[in-house]
Specification:
single chain, ABC transporter involved in vitamin B12 uptake, BtuC, 252 residues
Length: 252
């Protein structure tokens, strides 16, 4: 009989793989991987603020991550905007953490993350948000693909490019927060980008990229979890290490 914390970790890996497949793939298609790092660190500021206000920190993390996405989407130089919001958010995070010194460990927990420390509440929120993202991607996947590969062509056909771009970047930011809860802000980049990047190197079609990225994320998550039972390392760190290793292998 598996312990509850292991069951929660397994569920989290499945949720993680779905987000890596959907949001991770579109991040690669739009060539905006830096958004993941920006959203993850903005989420720390949101979490710290909501802890100070005595609210559930994940909600604040999602709000701040989406703000970074929308801010970047309005800027002519997206990476510059993300970099500025990155620095601004981390400054806010340090300020808010200074207000909650006795609870600062809760914020640092989001920085590093751990698959084996997830609560039932965490899993429920991750599942709800992942379900919402799946519905959004199913409804608008054609528009998302169009604006990812041919923004000007989409505009010429009358597609509401700005609206769909806002929505796509917002979903990527939310997926970042979902994965961040399991692996932390430091490692989220590896788990969201590396599987999709590896899949994009080897796939022969768009659909294969989605499928392979989910498979690579699953493999990294499960092997990282299993390895953590035999060696004294964090399963999140091991999973991220495996994910990046897969990417390096696929580059050959």
């Amino acid at each position: 009989m598996l312990d509850e914390y292991i069951i929660r970790a397994i569920i989290a890996i499945f949720l993680l793989s779905i987000n890596a497949s959907l949001a991770g793939t579109f991040t690669i298609f739009k060539d905006i991987p830096f958004l993941v790092a920006g959203a993850a660190h903005a989420a720390l500021a949101g979490a710290a603020l909501f802890i100070a206000l005595n609210f559930y920190p994940m909600v604040g993390a999602i709000f701040f991550a989406i703000f970074v996405a929308l801010f970047a989407s309005k800027a002519k130089q997206a990476n510059v905007a993300i970099g500025i919001s990155f620095a601004f958010s981390m400054s806010l995070a340090v300020m808010f953490i200074s207000l909650i010194r006795e609870q600062a460990a809760r914020v640092w927990g989001l920085l590093f993350g751990d698959l084996l420390l997830l609560t039932n509440r965490d899993i429920i929120l991750m599942a709800i948000m992942t379900t919402i993202l799946i519905i959004i991607y199913l409804l608008f996947h054609r528009e998302f693909l169009f604006i990812s590969f041919d923004m000007e062509g989409a505009m010429s056909l009358g597609i509401k490019v700005k609206l769909y771009n806002y929505l796509l970047l917002a979903t990527i930011s939310v997926a970042t927060v979902i994965i961040m809860k399991a692996v932390g802000a430091i490692l989220v980049y590896a788990m969201l980008i590396a599987p999709a990047g590896a899949a994009n190197k080897r796939a022969n079609s768009v659909m294969q990229v989605f499928v392979l990225s989910a498979l690579f994320a699953l493999l990294a998550g499960f092997f990282g979890l299993i390895a953590s039972f035999f060696i004294p390392f964090s399963p999140s760190a091991l999973s991220a290490l495996i994910a990046t290793s897969i990417f390096l292998i696929m580059m050959r």
